[in-house]
Amino acid sequence: MAYEFTNDLRTGNAIIDGEHKILIKAANDASEAINQGKGMQELESTLSFLASYTKTHFENEGKLQDKYEYPERRRHKLWHESYIRDINLTYTRLKTEGTSPVLVAELERRIRILITHIKEQDTKLAAYINEYCQKNPDAF
């Protein structure tokens, strides 16, 4: 299943939206590598990038949450840590066990979880940051 950066994924924060676009492309590349039976080297490369960039993005989001004193940053950080463990576990299993219907389904599920997180949690974060900046114009 290919994902698109649709309006319901837009947070209105240029930094977050830009990184989400890269994540969605990486998720699509990983799905495509699996579904089209591309070689294990390409699959490993796309999954490695997805796992690595997810961590980078979450670190960047964490910095924004700290900077703007996001009240839910602790819970958001715990979710990020859990997701990084899960996506890395899926990546490791695919790398060591190869593709199987179960692991392909697991990867697709993890990608859907990330998309849902963007829609439900990151849009709240961006709204908070936007409101914070409006109330505190010197905070930029």
Question: What's this, in brief?
Answer:
This protein has 140 residues and is mainly alpha-helical. 79% of the residues lie in helices and 0% in strands.
Proportion in β-strands = under 5%
Number of strands: 0
The overall pLDDT average reads 88
Number of helices: 4
CATH topology term:
Four Helix Bundle (Hemerythrin (Met), subunit A)
The CATH level-2 architecture is identified as Up-down Bundle
Major sheet attributes: none
The CATH homologous superfamily is named: Hemerythrin-like
Number of folding domains? 1
Helix content: over 70%
The shape, in one word, is elongated
What's the helix-strand series?
HHHH
Radius of gyration: 16 Å
Please mark out the parts with pLDDT under 50 across 5 or more consecutive residues, or reply none.
none
| CATH classification class | Mainly Alpha
How many angstroms does the end-to-end distance come to? Answer: 38 Å
**Structural class of the helices, strands and pairings?**
mainly alpha
Can you offer a commentary on this structure?
By secondary structure, the protein is mainly α. It has a single domain, classed as Up-down Bundle (Four Helix Bundle (Hemerythrin (Met), subunit A)), CATH 1.20.120.50. Helix content is about 80%, strand content about 0%. It contains four helices and no strands. It has helices at about 15-35, 40-65, 75-95, 100-135. The longest helix has about 35 residues, at about 100-135.
